[in-house]
């Protein structure tokens, strides 16, 4: 069975049958689907609620996925804080944690302060970037950053959802790449980046 392969670690799914369902849903645990062009939040065909677990702002529910280990980072271009085009290859030379999120995604917003704290504490050992998947881009992301009071993260923009398409995942998804740009693991869903399990994952990756 897939759950015994070692590729996935399910967190906070109390029933084994629900755990299997969570994997079949391919990343819908604790996640949002993509934004509709009309501005809606939920996509069709995806669950926004973790099976068997009520969702709520501030809760951290996630899946750890190692099935993509060794894959090269995608080449899709997105926009940097200065509005210049960048790709993930521009960050090679040191470990990189890429968080795919959106302002309308409640789990994304819930984990953002802990991700900002991680970026502030680990800036010398790795790069942490948060790439917004909002279709309206800077129009909604920049005001959100101004209000959020984050200290380390900067607003990267991917309104074309190129990185999300390449990841074939839900929001939020955080992908850790080694210094050569190869994926090590990904977290699908919201995790407390200041918590023990996140620290263990980063230690596993040598950061």
Feature tags:
single chain, 207 residues, alpha+beta, seven-stranded mixed beta sheet, globular, disordered N terminus
In terms of DSSP E residues, the strand content is 15-25%
Q: Could you tell me the number of beta strands?
A: 9
Strands of the biggest beta sheet: in what spatial order?
A: 1-2-9-8-5-6-7
Task: List the uncertain runs.
Answer: 1-28, 39-58
Q: Helix count, per DSSP?
A: 5
How would you describe the shape?
globular
- Radius of gyration based on Cα positions: 16 Å
Helices and strands, in order, run as EHEEEEHEHEHEEH
How does this model look, in words?
With 207 residues, this protein is of the alpha+beta class. 25% of the residues lie in helices and 18% in strands. The chain contains 5 helices and 9 strands; from the N terminus they run βαββββαβαβαββα. The chain has helices at residues 16-24, 106-121, 138-148, 162-167, 196-204; strands at residues 8-10, 62-65, 78-79, 85-86, 96-101, 127-132, 155-157, 173-177, 183-189. The protein has a 7-stranded mixed sheet, sandwiched between helices. β3 and β4 form a beta hairpin. The protein is globular. Mean pLDDT is 80; it is low at 1-28 and 39-58.
């Amino acid at each position: 069975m897939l759950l015994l392969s070692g590729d996935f670690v399910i967190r906070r799914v109390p029933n084994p049958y629900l755990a299997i369902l969570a994997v079949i849903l391919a990343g819908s645990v604790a996640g949002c689907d993509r934004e509709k062009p009309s501005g809606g939040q939920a996509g069709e065909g995806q669950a926004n609620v973790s099976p068997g677990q009520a969702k709520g702002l501030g809760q951290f529910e996630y899946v750890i996925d190692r099935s993509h280990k060794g894959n090269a980072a995608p080449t899709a271009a997105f926009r940097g804080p200065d509005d210049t085009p960048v790709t993930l290859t521009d960050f090679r030379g040191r470990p990189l944690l890429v968080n795919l999120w959106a302002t309308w995604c409640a789990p994304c917003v819930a984990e953002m302060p802990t991700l900002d704290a991680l970026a502030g504490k680990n800036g010398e050992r790795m790069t942490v970037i948060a790439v917004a998947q909002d279709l309206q881009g800077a129009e909604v992301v920049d005001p959100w950053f101004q209000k959020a009071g984050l200290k380390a993260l900067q607003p990267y923009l991917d309104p074309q959802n190129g990185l999300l398409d390449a990841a074939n995942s839900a929001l939020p998804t955080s992908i850790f790449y080694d210094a050569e740009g190869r994926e090590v693991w990904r977290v699908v869903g919201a995790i407390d980046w200041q918590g023990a399990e996140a620290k263990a994952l980063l230690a596993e990756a040598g950061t």
